[in-house]
Amino acid sequence: MVAKLIDGKAIAAAKRQAIKAHINILKRQGMIPGLAVISIGSDPASEAYVRGKVRDCIEVGIHSEVIRFSENVTEEQLLREIRALNVDDHIHGMLIQLPLPEHISKWKVAQTIGPEKDIDGFHPVNIGKVAANEGGFVPCTAAGIIEMIRETGVSVSGQHVVIAGRSTVVGKPLALLFLNQDATVTICHSRTRQLFQYTRQADILVAATGKEALFHAGDIKPGAIVIDVGMTRSAEGNLVGDVAFEEVKNKASLITPVPGGVGPMTRVMLLEHTLIAAEQQRKKGS
Ligand SMILES: Nc1nc(=O)c2c([nH]1)NC[C@@H]1CN(c3ccc(C(=O)N[C@@H](CCC(=O)O)C(=O)O)cc3)C=[N+]21
């Protein structure tokens, strides 16, 4: 079997067009959705992501603001900026670029973002809503993965989803989202014994370990759906996933490429969440 690609880049492009059309309607009604991105430090990779986000916003007509802080910004300075954005009427969504410096508490940051503007799902209210299956914003990567699978038309109900990785932004929220769709979910992580015994049982495998080409053909169930969240820069400078794509593609039924898979979906979900946040805040305001 040769797997069909789940073309994240193409799905994201189509979604961007739909979002753009929707925003045009809002604009005619006098509303411009606004996104603030807070970026701390000057990591070149981080800078590239931020520039990408700004470009995406321009393409669909979202007003964007980037707030840059140096690596040694104090926690209080950061929290003050977040509080200011919470009451800024031009801003409907905010994203604080991860990772944060060691001296800043991610949990304090999460609690300070107004839940209605928390489009990357950091705030405890949003985490709670997702756990209770009551909506709520989820991290854009997790949302993008769910959206990609929805696009394939495959029902996840009753399927065994194995997630390798338990991060707050990917593994954990994704497990809840799949559970909410009636999947059977196994979460594996760095301390899991016999990791590959689990992955071989997966109808849907989500590889989010950050370990370059960890999963090979022998670790995958024939016909599985394989979602590769990994994004490591190889020694040759290429972007590589957690999955040995060339061999696994002959065993899976559907597979996401790296690049061009989960990455573009993450970016487009940021736009969609900003649009949703803007609409929700408009309803509340009127
Ligand atoms: N609060 C927060 N939320 C995030 O979602 C978040 C974050 N912090 N910090 C940094 C990481 C990284 N990230 C990426 C998203 C898309 C691509 C992307 O579009 N990648 C392209 C390739 C880009 C290239 O070639 O370098 C692709 O996979 O096709 C990459 C990286 C979001 N992050």
Automatic annotation (TrEMBL):
The keyword Oxidoreductase applies. NADP(+) binds at G165, R166, S167. Its EC number is 1.5.1.5, 3.5.4.9. Residues 139-281 form the Tetrahydrofolate dehydrogenase/cyclohydrolase NAD(P)-binding domain. Residues 6-120 form the Tetrahydrofolate dehydrogenase/cyclohydrolase catalytic domain. Belongs to the tetrahydrofolate dehydrogenase/cyclohydrolase family. HAMAP family: THF_DHG_CYH. Gene3D superfamilies: Leucine Dehydrogenase, chain A, domain 1, NAD(P)-binding Rossmann-like Domain. SUPFAM superfamilies: Aminoacid dehydrogenase-like, N-terminal domain, NAD(P)-binding Rossmann-fold domains. Pathway: One-carbon metabolism; tetrahydrofolate interconversion. Homodimer. It comes from the Bacteria. This is Bifunctional protein FolD. InterPro entries: Aminoacid_DH-like_N_sf, NAD(P)-bd_dom_sf, THF_DH/CycHdrlase, THF_DH/CycHdrlase_cat_dom, THF_DH/CycHdrlase_CS, THF_DH/CycHdrlase_NAD-bd_dom. Keywords: Amino-acid biosynthesis, Histidine biosynthesis, Hydrolase, Methionine biosynthesis, Multifunctional enzyme, NADP, One-carbon metabolism, Oxidoreductase, Purine biosynthesis. One of its GO terms (molecular function) is methenyltetrahydrofolate cyclohydrolase activity.
